[in-house]
Amino acid sequence: MSGDADRRHPVDGDIGQQEMAPSKKGAVLVDGIILNGPTTDAKAGEKFVEEACRLIMDEVVRKATDIHEKVCEWQSPEQLKQLLDLEMRDTGEPQDRLLELCQDVIRYSVKTNHPRFFNQLYAGLDYYSLVARFITEALNPSVYTYEVSPVFLLVEEAVLKKMIEFIGWKEGDGIFNPGGSVSNMYAMNLARYKYCPNIKEKGLSGLPRFVVFTSAESHYSMKKAASFLGIGAENVCFVETDGRGKMIPAELEKQVWQAREEGAAPFLVCATSGTTVLGAFDPLDEIADICERHGLWLHVDDLLKKCYSANASYLFQQDKFYDVSYDTGDKSIQCSRRPDAFKFWMIWKALGTLGLEERVNRALALSRYLVDEIKKREGFKLLMEPEYANICFWYIPPSLREMEEGPEFWAKLNLVAPAIKERMMKKGSLMLGYQPHRGKVNFFRQVVISPQVRREDMDFLLDEIDLLGRDM
């Protein structure tokens, strides 16, 4: 039993609790505002969090693999404005109303974790990374110094180290970014800094015209990065590709020589391993040889901090009591940065390297299965044999199957994919992207990514497209 002495002298974990508790006496007012005590109702807040988490479990997590649920509850923008209470008011609203709003948000949002969501290059629900996101949202860390994010900086370091080992490098550096577009911008700026370090302080004045080379199949963010960095979108040279969407090395070298003859300053080649639409892989070895001959950027270690460091003395003090090499925020263009590596780390810990490998192998196997089914079925036609998990194909409705493949045929086929997409969205049965591409009229692009996808979903995809389009 505890005696009076124990109560007068609490254990270390309880020291100062009485001093920390807000006083109920002697209220302090400033400009009519009471400063004593908390400003929020903790009990009510905790209850709201519990009920909202229960709602998420019931309406999102548990339904993630239910094929009987709709992928989306389609509403037009004007209809959705009427269905949702979007107005912010002067006074707060009761929690039961907030929970109703949460329910509406879930109901009318696209279920990207549905097994039949194939619309973009992301899909599916991973339970471990979801928990990781819950943790980081609750803790609300900002990854720039070790003192505010000790765990998450070490996690990012561990993940980067492991990824560098997998690539086969003995050393290297990296940073987790919010997406591929920002990563491409980092790469372009690092390459320019390597070519001309003075640009960090002196700017672009007096420098030659910088030129970037990338595949004609590359991601559109390369032009955005050039525009953002002051290089100019017109100075992104798109290198022609072969029939499978791979950069042609001879065309690259030709354009490099041409740029030099024009007095420009080539400094970067951006190759692609898995293009956005066709999933093509550029011939990296041949491209690397060209970069080496011409002194162009392809890979350089240890430039992130040199390129981006601003040495903010109020944040990155060098006289801290710990190893300041862990204050990695100075190698980022951002200040506050989310701990995105934690999600990857959590799933890697849960599945292991072999488990992640199995997910990739399964996705590729499902892709091969879909290709075989497309070849078997009347009315479906591949653009080309896929190299990766990107499956590009046309659906040709019965009314066009006997028509000669001339201008009229292709003009009519161009209308098919958008019309089927509209029907599937309004029905809510699945979501699949389509696009035209370099002279090819609109076609569907299916990419297997979600771990929830099964062979049955591949069959359903083709069955549903045929069902929605057979009367066209």
Describe the structure.
The chain is globular. A hairpin with a 7-residue loop joins strand 7 and strand 8. It starts with a helix and ends with a helix. With 472 residues, the chain is of the alpha/beta class. Helix 3 packs parallel to helix 5. Among the domains are: 198 residues, 3-Layer(aba) Sandwich (Aspartate Aminotransferase, domain 2); 126 residues, Aspartate Aminotransferase, domain 1, CATH 3.90.1150.170. Homodimer. It holds the Pfam family Pyridoxal_deC.
State the gist of this model.
This protein is 44% helix and 10% strand. The protein has 472 residues and is an alpha/beta fold. The chain has a five-stranded mixed β-sheet. The chain has a three-stranded parallel β-sheet with strand order 5-4-6, with helices on both faces. A two-stranded antiparallel ribbon has the order 1-2.
* Structural class label: alpha/beta
Give the SSE order as H and E letters. HHEEHHHEHHHHEHEHEHHHEEHHEEH
Shape: globular
Largest sheet: 5 strands, mixed
Would you give the CATH topology of the domain at 142-339? Answer: Aspartate Aminotransferase, domain 2
CATH class of the domain at 142-339: Alpha Beta
Features:
single chain; 472 residues; alpha/beta; Aspartate Aminotransferase, domain 2; Aspartate Aminotransferase, domain 1; five-stranded mixed beta sheet; 10 strands; 44% helix; 10% strand
